[in-house]
Amino acid sequence: MPPMRDVLPIVVFSKQKDWKYMNDRMRPMFEKRFQLTDVVKKKVDEIIAGAKTIEDKIARLYLFCQKEIRYISIKGNLASNQVGHPAEETLKNRYGDCTDKGMLLATMLKHIGVEAYPVGVLTNDAGRAFRELPIFDSNHCITEVNLNGRRFYLDSTATDYRYPYFRSDDHDTIAENNMRGSIDPIPVPPPEDNAIVGRRQLKIERDGTMRIDLENTQNGSWEASMRGMVRNFKPEEYEKQVRASISGLTASYTLHVATFSNPLDFSGPFTTRSGYTLHQYVPRSGRYLVLEIPFFGLRFPEVALAERTYDIVYTTSNLRDDQIEIQLPPGAKVKYLPPNVDVKTPALEYSCVYKVEGEKILVQRRLAVKQRVVPVATYTTYKAELEKIARSTDERIFLEDTEGKEESR
């Protein structure tokens, strides 16, 4: 569903003359707090010591404001509510809300020669911001960064996002920059900036036993979600979740490994690994083995209704990229592969390609959601395409055993 304010009647009014009047009123408040003091400079120099590139420096300052400044909101007047506290005060307190954190990060970036500003947004789960009239219509503050002709945004309140990613509810919003006197759209990032990339190796034995080794690497919101989930886990708690997932396939399995990278290490993407054996998992019918790739099916509950009244609204774009290598059992050959699938719509792209190489089957699959909002006018077509994709993931691979006696179970 779209947010309520986007589908219900609403009246908006302003007592201000125009945006220039609003910006002229707010700008001095920002400038008073946007002060690069010696205390702030010293801390920045300490944080970036040894950093070799400007991107590395920005990443370190971003991580500091995310992790070392606790989110606590204390407001007493218009200025502290709309523009936050002075950067040095937030740094000394080691706490602040989104405006305080946005101001501190922008001020720190100023010391390394990067143009940055705290900007107001209305998060996309709250609806579309009204920028036609000069009103306070933001519920959040993030940091606008201008670097080498490129404008992007960072959100210091999101503690599990790795630079240069930022909270998904900031995507597809409108930034209000009172210091520059500008109003700019924040676009939906490409699906590649919110991706989960899976690499699976499947090895099948003649009795239907299957060994699976899986590695998933995430970025963007996928990564932040996983980091947030596991950083408070004990290893045995994570293993318990993995076991619960595998046991949905079969009760007869052996778990070999279930690990994840350090969720507090932001020097690279977050990765999970698992390895397990499903005993006699692949059923046999005569001389044929009927293979269903585990965790391959896709379902799209957003198109369950025959008709819709409102647009489909996702949080942001996303990408699932799977590469699967299947080692055939000795003496087996491929009897049937599902047909390749290629779907392209303005909102979504999907492809799945099956290929035989020697004693292996290679499966390459990519699902990219490109738009955050799917208009209700396109629902019928969108529904048909998603259902086509879902049906294709239910297809089975048939292998023929050309050696030994026929077995049946």
Description:
- By secondary structure, the chain is an alpha+beta fold.
- It is built from nine helices and 21 strands.
- It has helices spanning 19-33, 38-47, 54-67, 78-82, 87-93, 98-111, 220-230, 235-247, 379-392; strands at 70-71, 95-96, 115-121, 140-147, 150-154, 173-177, 182-186, 195-204, 210-218, 253-260, 270-278, 284-285, 288-291, 312-313, 318-327, 332-336, 341-344, 348-357, 360-369, 373-374, 397-401.
- The strands form six sheets. Strands 10-11-9-8-15-19-18-17 form an eight-stranded mixed beta sheet. The chain has a four-stranded antiparallel beta sheet with strand order 12-13-21-16, with no helix packed on it.
- Helix 3 (54-67) packs antiparallel against helix 6 (98-111) and helix 5 crosses helix 6.
- It is elongated and about 85 Å long.
